[in-house]
Amino acid sequence: MKRATLATLATVTGLVLLLGFKSHSTNGGLATVTTARSPANPPSAGARVRPRRSHHPQAVTVRSVTGAIAATPYGPVQVEISLRGSRITAVHPLQLPGGAQRSVQIADYAIPQLVQETLAAQSAHIDMVSGASFTSAGYERSLQSALDRAGA
Amino acid sequence: MTAPVSVESPVRRPVRHVEHCMGTVFTFDVRGDGVDRAALQRAVDWLHWVDATFSTYRKDSAISRLARGEHSVADCPREVGEVLELCRQADRASGGYFTATPGGALDPSGVVKGWAVERASELLRAAGSSSHAVGGGGDIQATGEAAPGQPWRIGIAHPLRPGNVAAVVTGRDLAVATSGTAERGSHVIDPLTGRTPTGLASVTVVGRRLSIVDGYATAALAMGTAGREWLQGLPGVRAFAVTSGGQTWQTGEFT
Residue A43 above 80 pLDDT? Predict the structure, then answer.
């Protein structure tokens, strides 16, 4: 049960991060603000900018970034991510559909080779498309036909 | 006066070709040195021959005559026996979730397209190509690589978000078959309930041979969410699915 929840969270988080980092996101994109995390002050988008720096001057910046609230098929989702330099080290859900908040520590965040986020076909650089069987009429509406037209 | 003879160019070249057949559309993408026009024509002619032989919509096809009992399997082209054997293997492997007799009538459509594409791919290989992909109605057999050092990239159409790709599979010498409810074929029926299945919007099976994974994808869709465990237990294949709720799962190791 827990594994399924984490897997769902990872998928949802991946979706939110994708929405957050897209430059033309309609929900405003990733809010580049940082807040000190504290249970007494629930973080929200639009708070003050204040990166937390480590004590070693040459060390990499550690900061927290709160994303805008994203509307997903599962409900509204908002996450805060911790970054060490450009590497995501933790994802803290602030708002999840269905309630329970749980922190997920990620040692090495990596998108698997089988990419699960929804991609626009033209940015996925694909050679062919596999999908449910289509009729000749259905083909005209299919991604494959778009590829065939582009490659002709 | 002799009829003019058309001379096919013996020159090999890469080519993309789209062919309407079997009520759907086939795509040929031949890379590298390519093939000559005659070889491509042979592959295209092969698809039309399969259509004429296996179409359940044609009363005079071999499969229709067989279904009506007018012919025995021995009277049919040997390819009919081959396809029926593929159906039997898929039936055994899936515990009956794949069947050549959905609703009681003989209809091997669940494997015919994939098998035809795999054979078309072999024809191109016999003509000297080592780098080509053939797709038919959403099922693909890809040979070799897309380019030297570059694996083929096969997108999996998102069944719930038209125009989007749910995932990308990359590899060499691979077959990708997807069964889905988006445009339901009559062959996808849960044999236990007699109804079209719910639970999965699409399931994609990746392996070496399209004639095999085509049957697996058909069976897995009929199984619904129970198909996941079945696919996990199959050797040499990997699967990816999108549920009707938009969640995804995968089995096997995608590297």
Answer: no
- Terminus-to-terminus CA distance in chain B, angstroms? 63
Q: Across the interface, do B170 and A131 touch by the CB < 8 Å criterion? A: no
Contact B165 A136 (CB under 8 A): no
Q: What number of C-beta contacts closer than 8 Å exist between A and B?
A: 145
Q: Is the confidence metric ipTM above 0.95 for this complex?
A: no
Burial classification of residue A129, based on how many CB atoms lie within 10 Å of its CB (0-12 exposed, 13-18 middle, 19 or more buried): buried
Tokens of B117: 């594409």
B147 close contact with A: CB closer than 8 A:
no
B138 in contact with chain A, both atoms CB, cutoff 8 A: yes
Place of tokens 């077959």: B175
Is residue A136 within 8 A of residue B24, CB to CB? The reply is: yes
**Mean pLDDT for the stretch of residues B166-184:** 85
Mutate to test the interface with B, among A123, A127, A142, A147 (most CBs of B within 10 A): A127
Residue A142 to residue B157, Cβ atoms within 8 A: yes
- Contacts for B139 with CB less than 8 Å, ≥ 6 apart: A130, A133, B113, B114, B117, B175, B176, B177, B178, B210, B214, B217
Judge whether B243 is closer than 8 Å to chain A, CB to CB. no
Residue B9: alpha-carbon gap to chain centroid: 30
**Nearest by Cα to A94 from A1, A9, A23:** A9
Pair type for strands B238-243 and B200-207: antiparallel
Q: Which amino acid is at B151?
A: P
SS3 category, A113: coil
- Cα separation values, A75 from A66, A106, B20, Å: 18, 23, 42
Q: How far is residue B97's CA from residue B250's CA, in Å, rounded to a whole number?
A: 20
Smallest Cβ–Cβ distance between B177 and the set A11, A118, A130 belongs to A130
List C-alpha distances in Å: B165 to B140, B156, B178. 16, 5, 13
pLDDT in tens, B133-171: 999 999 999 999 999 999 999 999 999 888 889 999 999
For residue B32, give the 3-state DSSP assignment.
Answer: strand
